[in-house]
Amino acid sequence: MVSNIIAAVLVLGILGAVFGLVLAVASKVFEVKKDPREEEILGLLAGANCGGCGFPGCGGCAAAIVAGEAPVTACAPAGAENAAKIAKIMGQEAPSGDRQVAFVRCTGGVNAKKRYDYVGVKDCVSATKVAGGPLECAFGCLGFGSCVSACQFGAMSIGPNGTAVVDPEKCTACMACASACPRHLITSVPVSKKVHVGCANQDKGKAAMSVCSTSCIGCGLCQKECRKDAIHVEKGVAVIDYDKCVGCKLCTKVCPRDAILPAATAEEKEKYKAIKKAQAEKAKAAVEAAK
What we know:
Layout: H1 2-29, H2 36-42, H3 57-66, H4 79-89, E1 100-104, H5 124-128, H6 146-150, E2 156-158, E3 164-166, H7 176-180, E4 186-190, E5 196-197, H8 205-211, H9 221-225, E6 231-234, E7 237-240, H10 250-254, E8 260-261, H11 266-290
Antiparallel strand pairs: 1-4, 2-3, 5-8, 6-7
Helix pairs in contact: 2-3
């Protein structure tokens, strides 16, 4: 009986050795060669696995860059310096351009009318499942912080007026917040630009006006006033062309709804009206004198 046990152990040992050898040979034969650049690039990525790049984690992002399926700037949190290093690894020129940050297109909050008081999970997605959400405005920020929870860099918060706001100093433009927002209110803007339209309401004037005191009503005054052709009303709401915008803020001074940020003060608006009136009177006098 002892001999049978010894024989069984020997057989199992031999089989184990054979299978181990087969696996070792198979691992070499079917080995997937990994480009060494992947590890280099992975070391330059943010390591947050935030998914903002659209790939499964930082490893997936590095593999996509090496494969040419993603740009060297795919990982926004990595920053411009690391993007330049990645470009060098890939044999490309360092990318140029203004750093991007997230921006929430809503200043409603306490200014927006409510249909009902929501009592439930403090999450924007959950709130929208209850009759479309508690706000009269179908485009407004719900203020329950789904974007705040999604941000891994502490750049999002709910502001004093009840809408989400971005800290541009902390924002890495990973845009995880944009993916978390059920109303698609968050977009990326150049960090150097300071004038933004703080509304996404596409309803016509009267309808937009009835649901929020700071909604854009598509009146077009900003479009008429802009001397650089940098702002236009599209689908009922003003949109800025940041390639043309010079930050003169004239649009903010003629907006009757304070929907363009930074909102001009009453004094600034009155002063600008006075300047426009004086210019009109001067032009009229010149015409009269020429007759």
